[in-house]
Amino acid sequence: MSFEGYRDLWVFIETHRGQAKSVGYELLTPGRALADRAGYKLVAVIIGKNIGAAAARAIEHGADTAIVVDGDIYDVYNTDAVSLALLALIDKYKPDTVLFGATNNGRDAGPRVACALKTGLTADCTGLDIDAETGNILWTRPAFGGNLMAQIQCPDTRPQMGTVRPGVFKKTAPDAARSGNVISEDVSVDPAQIRTRVVDSIREVAEAVNLDEAEIIVSGGRGVGGPEGFAAIRLLADTLGGVVGASRAAVDAGWIPHAHQVGQTGKTVGPKVYIACGISGAIQHLAGMSGSDTIIAVNRDPDAPIFEFAHYGIVGDLFEVIPRLAEEYRKMKA
Questions:
Q1: All domains of the chain, ordered by start, with CATH?
Q2: How far apart are CA 205 and CA 183, in angstroms?
Q3: What does the alpha-carbon distance between residue 209 and residue 244 come to, in Å, rounded to a whole number?
Q4: pLDDT value of residue 206
Q5: What is the pTM of this model?
């Protein structure tokens, strides 16, 4: 099937009050590889207010071009404003593929735009590839509770669209010597088309737990025994300058809020160090943290599946091991 006129690969760089979310820059990494294989330009699309710095960083992280829509109405994410702006840009430029981060806002804007365009969207992807003959993106995502991986294509419509979980891909190192085009687009949205507005903003625990960008995560599972068991997890996380994560079992038990959950139904993370304490290693949890640079497991069961994936394993009681790890680290830093 011919899709004449459709070309280039776009990455939507989500912003909030001028600051770009990390996942957008992460997606420039697979975007660069796919665009090169398809012979396309890699284009960062940035909608917000005072976003010139975000555009420059996108080019440093691999984009050839940045399309910028800057205006007061885009300062804080609004589903109607952003969706209408994206539809106007897509109608003008006709991209072949559009990538969104699987954030709350990306999961909102992506499907709305795809529905309006009557095209397909693959959600929560953990892998991306391209069929060189057809130009179809091969979207890989977990299915059946993470027990198998499905590969999905969108062969009949364009643009191809998908959301990708934060932490699946690593940002490339910024190259300040890279040059690219910054195209400013003035997309006016009729205020009558804006059906929602932000009345107030309350800082919740979900904002305080920044698992997506954490370099060190210490996670607790069923083995912590209860909500009080997370005191040891927090001790080690605070000592190392990291954040607290959790398995689904601990969240479902009500021991810790969902914002801390790592795994298939939580966050996908890729820190430099991931310490799994009292976590058996179910496939659903592994799907969310297997991209970590270094995985350290602490578990009393020497046969726990987590040890098959960990780079380092400690067999022992986490309530004995964690304080000693924290103490040794403090000695090392003294």
A1: 9-193 (3.40.50.620), 205-333 (3.40.50.1220)
A2: 37
A3: 8
A4: 46
A5: 0.80
